[in-house]
Amino acid sequence: MLFSNFMKVEFRQVKAGGSVFSFSVPAADLELEAEGFKFPEPIEVELTATKSGDEIIFQGTVSTLIEAECARCLELFEKPISSKMQFVIQFMDVGGPEDTGDDDFVVLPKTAEDYDITNRVRETIILELPFKPLCEVSCKGLCPMCGENLNETDCGCTQDKTDERWDTLRQLFGD
Ligand SMILES: [Zn+2]
Ligand SMILES: [Zn+2]
Q1: 79 shares its domain with 106
Q2: How far is the CA of 24 from the centre of ligand 2 (A)?
Q3: C-alpha 126 to ligand 1 mean position (Å)
Q4: 94 Cα to the center of ligand 1, angstroms
Q5: Cβ neighbour number for residue 26 with a 10 Å cutoff
Q6: pLDDT of res. 158
Q7: How close is the Cα of 119 to the center of ligand 2, in Å?
Q8: Do 80 and 27 have their domain in common?
Q9: Could you tell me if 82 and 165 lie in one domain?
Q10: pTM of the model
Q11: C-alpha gyration radius of the chain
Q12: Among 36, 43, 39, residue whose Cα is nearest residue 22
């Protein structure tokens, strides 16, 4: 197993029988802090590289822990996330990096020595972040009357007729 703090795969390290690349980098290095989530643990990447003719096939996972504010009860919670990542690098005799129109298919000149996966890892994490983070799928949220966290207490508020309009609004905008 190869280990590096830099998210760069070096092609000379890919052996005929395949190799595993492991990376562990702080989220700050990926400029992920700005996305409204916190990342208390490093971003872990494990990639298997397999040679096949003029191609190297990379397959693996990106995982970490996120800290977010629940969209319903506003409590902070932590949750592990993990996503598959795969891409193919094809080596050509001439030309530089080419836009193939396929994000998972990269063309490089045969003289290329390495490939930086930082942006790819960053995008993989961002795609995996929940649009509406919930501490639990069953989170009861806050009481619309008194603001108590209904996961922790039963405030006993009774809903009157005006709440029906709020329900409609909540259906429109999501609770
Ligand atoms: Zn919640
Ligand atoms: Zn209440």
Answers
A1: yes
A2: 45
A3: 21
A4: 54
A5: 13
A6: 77
A7: 45
A8: yes
A9: no
A10: 0.78
A11: 23
A12: 43
What domain count does the chain have? 2
Q: Which two tokens stand for residue 130?
A: 């929940």
Q: Which two tokens stand for residue 47?
A: 């990639």
pLDDT bracket for residue 59 (50, 70, 90): very high
- Window from 33-37, 87-91, 98-102, 163-167 with minimum mean pLDDT: 163-167
The ligand placed nearest to the CA atom of residue 151 is: 1
Is 134 in the same domain as 110? Answer: yes
CB atoms within 10 A of CB 11: 16
CA 152 to ligand 2 centroid distance, Å:
11
**Same-domain status, 118 and 134:** yes
> Which tens digit of pLDDT belongs to each residue from 99-124?
667 788 999 999 999 999 999 999 99
- Kindly identify the ligand whose nearest atom is closest to the C-alpha of 153: 2
Are 39 and 67 within 8 A, CB to CB? Answer: yes
